[in-house]
Amino acid sequence: MSLYRFSQCSLYHVSLVVFAFVWAGIASGQQSERPNVLFIISDDLNNFQGCYGDPLARTPNIDRLAERGVLFDRSYCTYPLCGPSRNSLLTGLYPNSTGILQNSQIFRQTIPQQLSLPQAFRLDGYFAARIGKLYHYNVPKSIGTNGHDDPGSWELELNPAGVDRLEEEAEITTLTPGQFGGTLSWYASPKSDEHHTDGLLAADANWVLQRCAKQSRPFFLAVGFYRPHTPYVAPRDPYFGFYPKDKMPLIQNVSEDQKDIPAAGLASYKREQDKLTDALRRECLQAYYASISFMDAQVGAVVDSLDRLGLSDNTIIVFTSDHGYHMGEHGLWQKMSLFEQSSRVPMLIVAPGAKANGSIVKTPVSHVDLFPTLAELCQVKAPANLQGQSLVPMLEDASTIGRGWSLTQVKRGGTRKQGARTPSFFGYSLRTERWRYTEWDSGEQGTELYDHHADPQELHNLASLPEHAATLQQLSQQLENAVATTFPESGVTPAVRPVTWAPNLTDP
Ligand SMILES: [Ca+2]
User: Fold this and answer.
1) Which residues make beta-bridge pairs with 232?
2) Distance of CA 229 from the midpoint of ligand 1 (Å)
3) What distance in angstroms lies between residue 401's CA and the mean position of ligand 1's atoms?
């Protein structure tokens, strides 16, 4: 068409052409208009980040995301262990509804028809891809495999393995010889970033994003980093150098602190941790921090790819971890406690154009809130039985209270002793704007009450003090009401069945 002839076109004809495009868009679901999602999850990462106020952590890239988006200051997992937490997050249901209360199980064994978060996006037209650990994996043994992941959730799955998995096992220092994933273990590797699994994940993410940039379909790209999960293996240079061993702080007055904590609250302690000396504690802390900074650099590489490819303006970025992690607080290490260090997680959401970007949300929120949030932001059809709330109102106004509480649970007991199993029970922690209230076995095995305004480190259990009796009673009722929302409509926790599905046949 010549310029002359184009100028002769009437507005009517131009309108017809525009209408035809819009109509075609609607007919095809208008997918290219919907935002992409870059979902980044780290493993066993607590709130040791600069943006969460940690004085030592060097996390410039996670901090940069916090500046770009909304930081949820009081975000909690539903269960402080990889498998139950990840199944909960990725189905939008509490563990009492997924039925998944331990690792090495997946919701397809209990509620096989439930749509997962990435699966809902995939079935609604998104390209859904996974790189690394999204559902449970044994670390480090399952690195480089599909682990306990869910094939129905993705169209593309990439499982790179680096020197940390393939070459360096013999070099690792560990509290229990031959074990690395469940025990404190660490190694300052002489190999640089690109040789490590998380470095390879970032490179794969760059490769996938390059291809996503060329297609019209929106994408849901999930990147699951393995660090800082044990073994804390990261490049020595520069990351271990950021944290001189003799500068690593040790927790003091542990035995005094433990006096008012019920036994169940401390039951995640492992006997092997008796082997820890102050020198070993400092080594652990150095290696954990170094692993965080290494993982942070890989987050930066992925976000840089997104920016460089011009995808940032239409891509929602989520950054979180599956649960928190103790480094000696209350005498505890690793996970499986209901204290802040083990149950609280970093959670950042960068939604382009959201009014609250750059702000901090203080109200307690939960991992189960991510599914409804992303579904609303992307107009993706979500299952009707999701148990969380949408965080979109907080992305618009950071002072929004929403549900106003968050619930975390953990199982105790059920271990084999002299041939018989000990009785098992749950601990539930309810966080409100001010309090953390906990009942172990409905209070039979103890209660805890911490005032986060006055005691954010949870050093003083107020549950037995008469002046807090009314608060305790009110929180106990609120806890009971909250727990009631975690069950399926039947009220019966699904039982775990053996795996019966075949790969790629998991769609309902
Ligand atoms: Ca984990």
Assistant:
1) 186
2) 7
3) 28
